[in-house]
Every structure is written in C-alpha cells, then in structure tokens.
Amino acid sequence: MSKLAIDTGILLETGTNELEILEFYINETLKEGQPPVKNYFGINVAKVMQVIETPNLEPPESAPHPSFMGTIPLRDLILPVLDLSVWLDLNMPKTERDIVIVTEFSKSVTGFLVSGVIEIHRVGWGEVIPPSSVISQSTDSIIGLVDKGDHFIQLLDLETILTQFEPDDGLELKRADKEYKVLVADDSATIRTMLENNLSKANFRPTITTNGSEALKTLTEYKQLAEESGKDINEFVDIVVSDIEMPLMDGFSLTKNIKHDPILKKLPVILYSSIITKELRHKGDSVGADMQITKPDLHTIPDKAIELIEGISA
C-alpha cells in the first residue's frame, strides 16, 4: 500500500475560531448506466494520520456491521476499515482508485474507505452552516456545511459513527449532594443526549445548546437576569461543559469569551474533544479552560464537574 502525506503547514492561533478540514468525496451511482456523482465531505485534519490506497478488502461474512470491510496492518497496528458510504447510505461503486483515510481520535485508529481526496481548506467556524438550515433531513453524523460556491462540503462527526459502531455500556455515576446547573454545548445530538442523561443522573440540571454561539447567547441572558435581579450568576448556572469543534463558534472561542467577562469568568469550563494533543491542551489552557478531557472519557464529566464546582466554592 502506498501512502500520501498529510501536512497542513499551518498552526492555527488560539481562539481564532478556525479549523482545517480535509475535503474528500464519495462517488454515488444514482442510475445504472450513468456516471456517478460526487458527494463532498470534510473532516478535521488534526484527526488524519495519513491517506493510503485501497487495500481491496472483501467484507467478511461475520462482519459486526455492514460497513466493516476487515482489518489491515499499518506500522505496528492492526486497524479496522469501515466503508463510509454504507454509513451515509450512498451507493458507492468500488474501484482500484479508492482510498482509505486513516484517522486517530478517541483513543482509536480507524480507516474509512472513500472515493478520493481533494485538498485541505482553512475555514472559520463562523462559515460552517448548521445542516438543518440547508437540508431538511440529515444524519447525526453531519454537523455542518461549508459553501464552496459550486458545491457544499458536508462536515462529518466521525465520533458519532464510532459511538454507534461500539456503543458504551451503562455506567454507575456519582450523584452530587445538591443540584447543580450545567450549560452544555455540543453539535452532536448523540453526544448531547448522552451528556444530558449522565448529568441528570448525577443531580445536575442541564441546559443544552448546539454550538458555542448559542451557548454564549444563553450565558449572556443568564448574566442579564442576574444583574437585573441582584443575584449571583451561580443562581442560574454553575459550570459550562463544551465540545471544542462546533459550527458558528468553537469551544476555545466560547471559553475565551467566558473568561474575559467580569461576571462569567468565575464559571468553571470543561472542554472535551476526540483529540486532546499537547498543542490543543496548550490552546485550552491559554483561553482559561479549567479542565480538558477526551471524548472516550465523557462518562467522567459529572464527577469532574462536581470536583470543580465544590473545589471553587470551598
């Protein structure tokens, strides 16, 4: 298998509300005898290890999921390869020119079979359009769209796919002695539901938002209510829990806004992502995040939130 290097050559500054995406495409046969059409997608470059040519796998009969193509050796790893077109319900014709995007996030390395890659784009989260405003029906794995003029790039939440592929078992959660109020920001309905359930079980009253912009608007409303009623901000919210990658405003920019506000800055902020590298951890520290965890450890958020709230109030 030959491989293509992925080198962005750009280090994004902290709090600029930007990301780099690898654009790729999946061909789809809509009608027999007609040429396939391209569907354009994008994923965060930081999650991409490399791109390799198709290993021409034949799905095993005992595959745990229709998308499972088999496993391949890479370096000192044996990694699963998933056919992304199956997840997206696209009739992708297989060719010798197909490629596998090898990703590393959520403590796992996975290959995703697609038709081809195009290029890397640097975009602002403010340019990412929520899918509900463009398409009437979308899978939970599509978190936003980028308008390139002649086509849309659909941004994929690969974590959602892996969560459905390997669902977590139920976990015993510590329960807080008193009810705390938490504001959650995440663009994935799957993650939002999981966090809402876990936090509720731990005696939190969650307010759920779908991106950093919506979360900041909600916090601004809480701040105004607190000022008008002469109450402390903690009467309305005790802690903020946010994903890093979100349309309109990412978690770094949300945290930066919170920590630069004279009223909101007292609120502890937990940031999470499928990838918490040294560089990302530095970015989170620089904007004032109180804690940063990876998505495989999301089940620890209730305990961590209790520790932060009670540690600050002690």
Automatic annotation (TrEMBL):
<dbReference type="GO" id="GO:0006935">
    <property type="term" value="P:chemotaxis"/>
</dbReference>
<feature type="domain" description="Response regulatory">
    <location>
        <begin position="181"/>
        <end position="310"/>
    </location>
</feature>
<protein>
    <submittedName>
        <fullName>Response regulator</fullName>
    </submittedName>
</protein>
<keyword id="KW-0597">Phosphoprotein</keyword>
<dbReference type="GO" id="GO:0000160">
    <property type="term" value="P:phosphorelay signal transduction system"/>
</dbReference>
<feature type="modified residue" description="4-aspartylphosphate">
    <location>
        <position position="243"/>
    </location>
</feature>
<feature type="domain" description="CheW-like">
    <location>
        <begin position="18"/>
        <end position="167"/>
    </location>
</feature>
<dbReference type="InterPro" id="IPR002545">
    <property type="entry name" value="CheW-lke_dom"/>
</dbReference>
<dbReference type="InterPro" id="IPR011006">
    <property type="entry name" value="CheY-like_superfamily"/>
</dbReference>
<dbReference type="InterPro" id="IPR024181">
    <property type="entry name" value="Chemotax_regulator_CheV"/>
</dbReference>
<dbReference type="InterPro" id="IPR036061">
    <property type="entry name" value="CheW-like_dom_sf"/>
</dbReference>
<dbReference type="Pfam" id="PF01584">
    <property type="entry name" value="CheW"/>
</dbReference>
<dbReference type="Pfam" id="PF00072">
    <property type="entry name" value="Response_reg"/>
</dbReference>
<dbReference type="InterPro" id="IPR001789">
    <property type="entry name" value="Sig_transdc_resp-reg_receiver"/>
</dbReference>
